[in-house]
Design brief:
The complex is a heterodimer of chains A (about 300) and B (about 250).
Chain A (H helix, E strand, L loop, with lengths): L2 H21 L9 E9 L22 H14 L3 E5 L8 H6 L2 H9 L4 E2 L9 H8 L6 E2 L4 E2 L12 E6 L2 E8 L9 H4 L3 E2 L2 H15 L4 E6 L14 H7 L5 E3 L11 E4 L5 E5 L7 E10 L2 H4 L4 E3 L1
Chain B lengths: L3 H17 L3 E11 L8 H18 L2 E5 L13 H22 L5 E3 L12 E4 H7 L5 E8 H14 L5 E2 L1 E5 L5 E6 L2 E2 L5 E7 H4 L13 E8 H11 L2 E2 L7 E3 L3
Helix pairs in contact in B: 3-7, 4-7
Classes of the chains: A alpha/beta (about 300), B alpha/beta (about 250).
Pfam families (chain A): Metallophos
Protein name (chain A): 5'-nucleotidase
Keywords (chain A): Hydrolase, Nucleotide-binding
Chain lengths: ~300, ~250
């Protein structure tokens, strides 16, 4: 190739890149910082209305209409927000007994939930009862360790989903608790439970290496920690046995944490584990800040909880 | 003009451009926000929920029976009025279903004290009362178990010293909580016989430490929720007046 041609062609390419830069926001200004907000709930258990003022434990707390206004305010502040739920959406108030979960799913869709995983109580009306309500959910159900191949849910639940917000790739996968002994067999039917730790190891590798995600989030209904049964899969155990996971959003044990837990993964890197109790009385909020400026990124990641 | 080198170069430059601007995670902030009455209520969501809430409340508040007194699961030591009602209702409502399907009778009922989730207040009983007593979706099952397992069941009750609701089973213990007498339908327990014990699916599967239901000779799933059994009983019963009786007693001396 002649040198003249090279220069000409190279100039053309640069022009194209600049144009591309205008349409692909991820390739704009060299040191642009980006901000992703993850909001989450778990174990809401059909608590649509707030607790009344007379409630012995949670007076005047919770309520989806309040959560809706809070989520909207956060979305207005940062449109690059994901809203996630870690399971046990169903069971706990007559709303579920009367409408079978229809209202829960419709309301979560109105709040623009992006994804949820499946809790043991979401099988309370059987796998057929869950399937029947899926048309009311405008969000995805993610579960990587329940094999639904021989059930009615086959193809309706994905192992993971990759979201792109402001050019940042966010991989989210779901894991659920062992159903045998917790849910009646005639409710979960031919659902096959697979080891959630092994599946999480696979999922995090796929999301980080194959899907090239910038953030990897695990939506878990395993439970926070089982000190009396250390071999039982839990969020802390999952964090310890995997790599690449930035955030584990937990559920099942209705754990109220004073603040998100920072723990070490298999590579000795920090992983965040959070769970916000139950009944929709709290909303979890995790903000991730990205920077392409080398000076800022040289110091690693600081975590403020 | 040959465009191939141009595109190759464009591609390389493009890759380089991306690589140079890789985003690095620099900071994470985590917190929890309490949902309290200081937050604004979203009017659209509230309006959407309202008709559902009104329908449920109208239904839940409909009066279906009457209680002559207030009954609590803590109003007796080894048997309580509300527990006796609970177990007797399960027998009365489930036995016709079981008999129609199998031609057999339920021999006894056992559920758990912790499964009574609320009191029954003196006055009108509404649909809501049944939801409060039994918020869970558990259903009636009948386990066919050996007499020896019934003896294990009796040991469990005697050791627990709690007013677990029972029906058709009579137990007497001495002052030291040693078993004096155990009878089903007024007959001593026969270890060679199969008994049909009604319980709920949670307990059948070992809930509350009740590990004596398995292995069972057979299991009959009635597809009858405990709450629906209570509701059906309240619909047909004008007034309830359960009492503490002699089904599980401790001798004074």
């Amino acid at each position: 190739m002649k040198r003249r041609d090279f220069i000409k062609q190279s100039t053309a390419a640069t022009a194209l890149i600049t144009l591309g830069g205008l349409t692909l926001p991820s390739f704009t200004a060299a040191n642009a910082s980006k901000h992703i907000t993850i909001l989450h709930t778990n174990d809401v258990h059909s608590h649509i209305d707030p607790f009344g003022p007379e409630d012995g434990r949670n007076p005047n707390k919770g309520g989806i209409a309040r959560r809706a206004s809070l989520v909207q305010a956060i979305r207005n502040e940062n449109p690059n927000t994901l809203l996630l739920d870690a399971g046990d959406i169903f069971q706990g108030t007559p709303y579920f007994n009367y409408y079978g979960g229809e209202l829960e799913f419709k309301l979560m869709s109105k709040l623009k939930y992006d994804a949820a995983t499946i809790g043991n109580h979401d099988f309370d009306n059987g796998i057929d009862g869950l399937y029947a309500q899926l048309p009311h959910a405008a969000f995805d159900f993610l579960s990587a360790n329940y094999n639904f191949s021989n059930t009615i849910l086959d193809t309706h639940v994905k192992p993971y989903k990759v979201f792109i917000k402001d050019g940042i790739k966010i991989g989210v996968f779901g894991v659920g608790i062992k159903l045998d002994g917790l849910v009646l067999k005639n409710l979960y039917k031919e659902t096959v439970y697979l080891n959630p730790i092994e599946i999480a190891q696979d999922m995090s590798r796929i999301l980080k290496e194959d899907e090239q995600c910038d953030l990897v989030i695990c939506l878990s209904h395993l439970g926070y920690n089982y000190s009396n049964d250390p071999e039982k899969p839990s969020d802390l155990k999952l964090a310890e046995k995997t790599k690449h996971i930035d955030l584990i959003i937990g559920g099942h044990t209705h754990t109220f944490l004073p603040k998100p837990t920072i723990t070490k993964n298999a590579e000795g890197k920090n992983t965040l584990v959070n769970q916000v109790g139950c009944y929709g009385i709290n909303l979890g909020r995790i903000d991730f800040y990205f920077d392409s400026d080398r000076n800022k990124t040289a110091n690693g990641t600081s975590i403020i909880v | 003009m040959n465009f191939k080198p141009l595109f190759t170069l464009f591609f390389i430059a493009f890759m380089f451009s991306c690589k140079q601007e890789t985003q690095h995670l620099t900071r994470i902030e985590g917190k929890q926000i309490a949902i309290t009455d200081s937050l604004e209520t979203d009017a659209g969501i509230e309006a959407f929920v309202k008709p559902y809430r009104e329908h449920i409340n109208k239904d839940l508040d409909s009066v279906i029976s009457y209680a002559v007194a207030t009954y609590s699961k803590s109003d007796g030591e080894l048997n309580t009025a509300i527990g006796n009602l609970f177990a007797d209702v399960i027998y009365e409502q489930s036995n016709p279903v079981f008999k129609k399907r199998t031609g057999k009778d339920i021999d006894m009922v056992l559920v758990n004290h912790g499964g009574i989730r609320s009191i029954i207040s003196k006055g009108d009983i509404t649909t809501r009362t049944a939801f409060e007593i039994m918020p869970f979706e558990n259903s009636v099952v009948v386990a066919a178990i050996k007499g020896s397992q019934v003896n294990d069941l009796v040991d469990y009750l005697v050791t627990a010293k709690r007013a677990h609701p029972i029906s058709k089973l009579n137990l007497t213990v001495d002052t030291n909580y040693q078993l004096v007498d155990a009878r089903i339908n007024n007959k001593a327990i026969d270890t060679s016989k199969i008994y049909y014990v009604a319980t709920n699916d949670y307990l059948y599967n070992g809930g509350d430490g009740m590990d004596f239901f398995k292995p069972s000779d057979s299991l009959y799933i009635l597809n009858y929720k405990i709450r629906n059994a209570l509701l059906d009983y309240f619909y047909k019963t004008d007034t309830i007046n359960p009492v503490i009786d002699d089904r599980f007693i401790k001798l004074d001396q």
